[in-house]
Fold these 2 entries.
Entry 1:
Amino acid sequence: MGSIWEYANPVKFSQTVSRFLAPVAMGATVCLVIGLVWGFFFTPDDFRQGATVKIIYLHVPAALMAINAWFMMLVTSLIWLVRRHHVSALAAKAAAPIGVTMTVIALITGAIWGQPMWGTWWAWDPRLTSFLILFLFYLGYIALWEAIDDPDTAADLTSVLCIVGSVFAVLSRYAVNFWNQGLHQGASVMRAGAITGTDTEEKVSNVFFYPLLVCIIGFVLLFVALVLLRTRTEIHKRRTRALLARERMA
Amino acid sequence: MMPDLGKYAETVLSSYAVSILLIVALVWWSVRAARKAKLALEDVEARRK
Amino acid sequence: MRALLKRDLILAFRAGGGFGLGIAFFLIVVVLVPFSVGPESGLLTKIAPGVLWLGALLACLLSLDRILALDWEDGTLDLMATAPLPLEAVVTVKALAHWMTTGVPLVVAAPLFGVLLNLPPQGFVWLVVSLALGTPALSVIGTFGAALTVGLKRGGLLLSLLILPLYVPTLIFGAELARRGAEGQAVSTPLLMLAGISFGVIALLPFASALVLRVNLR
Amino acid sequence: MVLRVKNLSVARGGVAVLEGVSFTLAPSDALVVKGPNGIGKTTLLRTVAGLQPAFKGTVEAPEDSLAYAAHSDGLKSMLSVAENLEFWAHVFGQKDITQAVDAFDLSDLRNRLAGSLSAGQKRRLGLARLLVTARPIWILDEPTVSLDTASVALFAQAVQRHLSSGGSALLATHIDLGLQANILDVGPFKAVAGATAISGYDEAFL
């Protein structure tokens, strides 16, 4: 008893979700409001980047969640392939649109931020490029889910795609890092401290770090809430489907 | 109340606008889909009884 | 296995599509590039390795959906699944046949097309080496995509969408190897990476391809 | 070389179509599966052939003993009749195709491209493929579609020879081939709505 796999039962999962969804969504809202308001109104400008540093409160959490969502999909895909728990496959399906939204936010805020900093909307900076590739992976993954009628076949194929894609995504990351050396350097130097968020060399950065932390927690909670909600939606759809199939037979 | 964003006002404000818009759209879409799926399911379950 | 390879090669010859189309497409891409970027030879020299690699990749992509779709339609794959040949071997042979009918001609034709783009003399060797090392990876990855989308009606477009991100590392290291070769720089890093990717995907990806093919045959 | 099917339930598109099918196919036996269209004969044969997983129950057969032939023949129109047969013979580890060619009266067509054959001739070629597999248990889904009377007779002879040499056959067909065959009417096995009717993946959602 008390095993985590109990929640692999779709009905049990739905009931549990219904209990936890509201508090998680509340927590997400509170953290996001506090973090963003704190960051936007009550933090000083950076001495180098001026007011643009405020973009960090959106850009960094979105980028983190874009990667974490894919990682979560990888784990749930593996669970589906090994243990055949339907909730796991549906959770992966539910996470993909959230991940792609986060990737788009990271890309757009990155481009807007890059405009005054680098003097161009788009630089083929390794990090930006990697996110663009991640975006393509998300698109392919979602398109494959949409293209297949049979839900179990779709779950199997997308799971394998997710695993193979993860390997290639990591490969691409190294390839892109290597590839950009030859073109131009230093594009990401400015953001090296910003990305890790824990850059303690500069004492100022703590001023930015705490609201950033609240924002990251807010994004994580938002992601969890949306995954729970969307997974439950998928379960409801499947249950409807199953009941209709049974109705037709009767 | 509004902080002085200086020459970067457009940059910062547009970042916030786009991001918040995307998040709100995602949440709205998810909630609507959830509601729809729930109604469809309740419909079928009601017929079963 | 040899019978399957022989059959696929004969089919590619007789159907006429395999060899001719890929090369023709490659040629057209290469010819169109100077029209779009201008005839200045310095610029062409600079972009030649990248353009040749992109052309080869697109020519390869063109014929991917034929790897498995035809055998799916006429029921051959169903019959194969009950045959003593494991599907891992089937997909490997299919990828090999695709490489021999598409990759090899591209490798052979690439130096000729290099002339059209003012590729410097020292670049030809590395262009051929990079394509010879990289095109097998393109075929094997493509077979995985073909196996994923084999039963789907709009498979062709989806196949491209799924495969293109997977082609990124191969393209980067392959084109980089060709570029460094052409510019006379050190080539060992991209050479090793490209070889690593090729051998890695050849060793591992057929298992994934066979797995998804089995799911699709269900 | 006995095929044993025990309490087999098969599913199509996630819904069980046939439930609790059991039969045994011994050497020299033929079993004809009958039932109205859409009841799941093809699904049953595909499941027995191992092309799709059984929802419930078991299919026991010696390894590498089954040969399956269905509506699509797996023939390449750009290969000649002989090349098509040679290919499948090699895949199944055989060499000689003359017996198969003779059995279905294809010797005049040996060098014709399969694409230039008539529908009936193609079907004969598809069935000749069964002979080059050298497998003892044949699973045939509507094998006589688009065959004329003479070809049906040829086919019946081929099956008869196969049976008398110790092979066995499981067929789904509407035509009486004049074989000493048992009949399996799958009508009574039609799945009914119930706790077990929704198969495989959807079951968890009920």
Entry 2:
Amino acid sequence: MHFLELLVELLLMPILAFVIGLAMVLMMRRIGARIQRRVGPPVLQPIYDIIKLYSKDTQISHGLMHEIGIIMAVGGYIAAETLLPVPGLDGLADKGGAVTLAYMLMIPALGMALGVGQCANPNGSIGISRALTAMLAYDIPFILVIFGASYVYGTTNLAEMISIQQQQGVSSWGIVQMPLLALTALLILPAIMGKHPFEIYVAPAEIATGPMVEMSGKFMGGLFVMQCFQLYTAGVIFTTLFLGGGVYWITFLPKIFLVVAIPMSVAYLFPRYRTEDVLRLMWKWPMLLGLIGLAVVMK
Amino acid sequence: MRPENYEAIKQPPSNEFELNFGPNHPGIEGNYAFRVKLNGDEVLSARADAGYLHRGFEKLMEGRLWIQNIALVPRICVPDPVPMEVCYSLAIEELCGLEIPERAQWLRVMQLEMSRLAAHLFAFGGHAATTGMYTPMFWGVADRDLILDRFEELTGGRVYSIYNIPGGVRRDMPDGFLDRLGALLDYLDSRLPDYDSLFFRNQVFIRRARDVGAMTQEQALKWGVTGPNLRATGLAFDVRRDDPYLAYEKIDFDVVTQPGGDALSRNLVRRAELKQSIRILRQVIKHLPSVKGAVRCPIPNPLAWNVPAGETYTRVESSKGELAYYVVSNGGDKPYRVHVRGPSSMHAVQVLEKLAVGSRLEDIAQIMFSLDACPPEVDR
Amino acid sequence: MNELDKIPVRQEISVAQGSVKRSNPLANVFDELVRFCQSRSMFMLHYCTGCGAIELPPAMTSRFDMERLGIQPMVTPRQADILLITGYVSVKTLKRIILTYEQMPAPKYVIGICSCTVNGGMYWQSYATAKVLKEYLPVDIYIAGCMPRPEAVISGLRDLMGDIKSGSASNWKRYFQNYDHYLGNQQKLFDEDWQTPTDIIAEAEHYGLITDQTLGEHTALLQKHQQPLEALEFSLGEKREKIRGENQ
Amino acid sequence: MSDISYKDKGSILGPFKSLSFFSRKPVTEPFEPRIAADNYRGFHVNDWDVCIGCSTCQKVCDNAAITMIKIPGLPDDPVMGIRNERPAIDYGRCCWCGLCVDICPTSSISLTQEYVHTCRENELDSYFILPDPNGMHNKLFPKGWSKTGDADLVDLERQPMAEMEPQSRSDNFDEIVDGFTKQQAIIEASRCVQCGMCHDSCPTNMHAPEYIRAIWEGDAEEAVRQMYRTNPFSHVCGRVCTHRCETACSIGRRGDPVAIRWLKRYAMDAVSDERVREIAAEGKADFVSGKKIAIIGSGPAGLTTAFDLAKNGHAVTVYEALHKPGGMTRYGIPEYRLPYDRLDADIDVIKSVGVRIECNVRIGSDITMEQLRQDFDAVVVAIGLQQGRSTRIPGSDHEQVRASVDLLRMITAGESFDVPESVVVIGGGNVAMDIARSLARMQKSQYGKVAVTVSALEDFDHFLADPEEVKEAREEGVVILDSRGPKECVIDKNGKLEGLTTLGVISIFDDDGRFAPSYDEVDEQLHHGGMVIESIGQMSDISLFGEELTEELEWNRGRLQADEDGVTSVSWLWSAGDMVHGPDVVHAVADGHRVAASIETYLNEGSSNNE
Amino acid sequence: MSKELNLWLDDLLKDIKIIQFKRKNSRRVRIDIAPEALPALLELLQGRASYVHLSAISCVDWIEENEFELVYHVWSYETNSLVSAHTRISREPGVYLSVYDLYTPAAFFERDIHEMFGVYFEGSPDMEKFILTEWNGPPPMRKDFDSEAFVNQTFNWEEYHPQWLKDIEAEGGGITTRPEDVR
């Protein structure tokens, strides 16, 4: 019975994440459209895109590693979703914890690197090297944030963090207890989501969307799915660490949508930084903030 | 991507590799290509590859009647077609000794400045997009479209107005046109603060654009840089002021310069020119109603129009720089030779090749767009 | 060259069929869903081939916002569904267009915009431009104008959407079914050693679209000149050899 | 708002202002195509009722997008300058520049505000359209770019022709019209759109577009060469042709037609007579055929026939009853319209190709027809209409009631007669004007004043004479009365002619369209005049045939019956010119060519039969 | 200053015998010069008379005279005037000197002229194909190359036969004049 329940949860969590992720993609595109003074795509556009991409057919293949890379990327996220507790579904959150999650989130980028390296397109190679550099840039502040939060809550178990925040009310939310770390997290959120101004690795005008350059059909569909998970994951992690997570969907959903809406809005207002600027920026302000924040919480 | 990219794998493992930049590449303005040699992110050398838009204009023009070519010339530069028409018409008028009516002169100035506005709005958008910022592009193109609406009303065509004809313009403007143009200018004026805060004064953008593709004034003069790009190196030169044509002598406007010679300076020069164009158009709106009379001087039947033998070199200031037509007539009903000197033939080839060296891969597109290079002018 | 002149370009025969109705009603519903999604999500290749491209930015951006129809620009042919030929194609560009087209995954659609794609347009006397686009590529929709306004472009795209939804937009299959015809025209223009990195014959086999018009003297000529591309060896090396062996 | 300094570092928070666009409405337009601007250059429409199929649009089209399509069932009338052709446009070529609209001589073609057309690959035929008034998709769209005064590329005004002032010309027979200067001729020639309507409407199909183009290119000799392809009477036609070409001219649809006649005159005057002779002789046969042809009458028809046949190497003899050759062109047209030296120049050209002209030989009396039949391989009768018709009103047999042709002949020949102090002319045609103006000149020089009254049946709206003739006649003091029918020549008791009474005309034709004038009997006027001249038409003097031949020939209402090629019912006899087709120089020339061609065929057949 | 320079230049150039000097207006000067003297003239103009901007090099194919005319348009930012230096070289073999060492932009124009007219410029840094990389025919801008004939020989045209045309043909009408007939 327990095992069956877990299985259902494990199945349900990625599906839920996917659906919410679709809505987030839509929201992102609608936000962009609004700032750009236009109407934007119809409501079901994200799902149309994914179904269409999966229906594409080509005989061209870039080899087994390329395919595995994508599977790794999507799989990494699917696994990550099961580690993220959401209202009613804890999944593997008890067993994983924040550190496992942080590692899990590196898998997609590595998987992409594996796959893209195979397709021999220099744009892809440049893109993926940039992506890994960017990951390097934001991962250190990210680890600082995770570390700080774990220290504050006294646990790496995400489910426990939620319950701590839920029990003690808003005053115990991470955002109140460690505002500097929350700010750090907010600053690196666009980078985690791969959004402006930190989307150097996509950069259509420079390297023709970098890693995606040779992705077609199903692979591209995989990336679209991955994007849904990516947005969802970013939203949920931030909410879990700083906004008290959620017990009920009705309060949880607004929180995660609000969280992703902030970097999305910013994304349409700025050009992208150069790679070295990203590194400098990430290792300067968020790291500084993170370290101060850490010092504050650990004092 | 072009499959030629596969050649990358043939190269020995090293940090140096070649990359085809275009023609199917969003960082390329129009249909144009570059072959860059990179060391990591740094460009070691760049080689322009043009001809994707080559139509043999100059040959085509030798095979058509003088007047038939007015439909052909605007196609030489798609984003900014009016200077092409005007320059070609001016050349024929000079060869024939036609004196065009004053009203036509003012109407031409009006179109030229409208076209400059449209082209500059387009150029900003493109420049912004190369840095990854799409919102100004969306705005710019939408605002440009409002100018195209006015063009449509005036000339019957959105992009290719084909409104100028040797001897003047093809018809007078519709009633109330100037009022609507004035309203459009007011709107554009009201939009400028939006652009400023979002784009021109955006710290991240300034950081991206500063010192990118920088050249000194000496270099610019040596390389044959003209137009806004030359003014961005601090030299106040404008064909409109210094080699005046049409009614520009009677119009009050500033030749704006910037000191940097880089992408940021070029961008700021264009922004200032946007304002100057609005200023010129305001003067046109004020002055035009007082200029009465025909909009075209009598011209011979186009089917039987022999332009007297001779040659002329006419220049106008397009939004991209110095545009010139060298027209030779042997007294026949068709041009004997037309040579188009598009400003971009310098900017997109030599200047870009030189500026790219030592720059970063991510800046190539930005340099190209900041030079406002227009490939069809190169290819013709 | 002389050898090429002797080979006539085979007349194209129309064999492309729209979507076939399957016997399983559920499969039909699924097909329809897929086609609906395909029609509502068209990614167009961001490639400005000619002057008509100047009307695409307005069509894509705020004023006419093609994203309302699910159309967005894509920078690489691998991700694109529709290829917009915006006006005249110089011979040099046509080569790139064909390369690009062949790299696009099926189903793919070509839209011919402006007069120039139909009968040479205003550059009909130009030595540098190809005149009749459909000789080299199967075209799905033509949009008239020089250049068509954004509204006309959008109308054309909506027509194409209707065709995709109903399953009648299947011209891409003709490229495989009549490859010899298209290749013949291409060779006539580009010389007999013209080749692209994409193995169309293998791809036609993959789609099950080999007809007796697919192979012919022109494809034989192609194979005579073809050199295997190193980069593709990873995946296609064996397969390609096999096909070639069978053909010989 | 000032300029942004280069040193400005910008602001990181500034861009956030743009978030205010969340509260602003999008600028996106609805899907439905917007209504285009009022002068938008969309798809074509063509008003078929106005279009004349002149194909000027085709010539101006820079993209070779226009094909002319013949459409059966539409009016096709070369004389009126209408062809049953309409332009079809290839939208695979068109660039919507609108030059076709701006140059259209009739302003039938225009562009609409319709601009959406899409099709599939197998429907590409829809790119080739035949614009009609309904538009491309039979949907009603307002007109977009259409013809306006500013945009018109057709020059509607003809070059002014310098001519003598009325006071200086009214007492002499000097030529009135100066002719174009070279500059004027080139400008006038440049108005031509080369539609070829003139060529189609010309009875002898002169290559007007070609010679106009040659004039425009400044090559008068080439123009003359083009003229001599079809007309050896170019000097004459350049001055007195009825210029049906100008009636048909497509520029004349909305403006002044191209002055084709004056251009012809210019070209002929610009080339020296010797050079004209050389040009005319080009293509002359370098052999002698041995055939002999006789031509009776040295008018345009006869001489054209002679010219053609002589160029083909035949021996041609022309017999002329009067002192000088030229026929009606000499004896019917006053000198102020056609100076005799120009006519002589034309005739010299014809002589120079080997035509022998024998004047003062009257066939029928000096030589009989039978003799001609025996001496020659073929005989052409081109005697024209040299006798005036009579009104046969009471008193018209008075000696002072004269026929206009007779008087004109006398004036030319220099035969003296008493110029009356006042004259009444019956008739409203060009001949009436000729005699009226000639007499006016003589009156002016003899008496210092003019008293000529012309009474015409027709009203001014349907006048037979050219409007310029009427205008000039009036300027010279001739009084022209329209809608007056002659009633009686009043003779006083001394037998002296007192004048002419006329009645107001109610209608000229009856319900069936037959000539049957009805008069208002109350509206009677008396016009005083010492002479009444009847100028209501001419007829032939057919006495030369002799009774036997007259019997043998077929006649139709007093005119010799001949088929299109002038072949009469007698195998060796052809007839040509006015006597067959009515009075007109250029028709006579056309007739001459046809007859010459017919004789040529006959002779060839004859010779091949002999072999 | 600028006026003086103009006057000085006028005086100077008028005195040189091998030059035909013609001032069209205050901003345009035409000079006809022998090909061997042109580089020296340009050197003078650039070095001494502030004509630093090479606006364009135009080439005209005078096929009847069997000559190419090269026109160097140079502009002075100081005097605001343009000198067009015309020179004529023989069409065969069509070789001339590059002015790249004087004017950098010459590289582009010379390359372009080489491609379009087949004139070879000795000393030009780059005579490679540029625009016409896929072109095997003769230099297309030469007057003896007939583009229209080439096109008609190389390409097919779309053959339309719409229903309305069939209807008209059934009634006895049809195409009378094709556009190519009137060209």
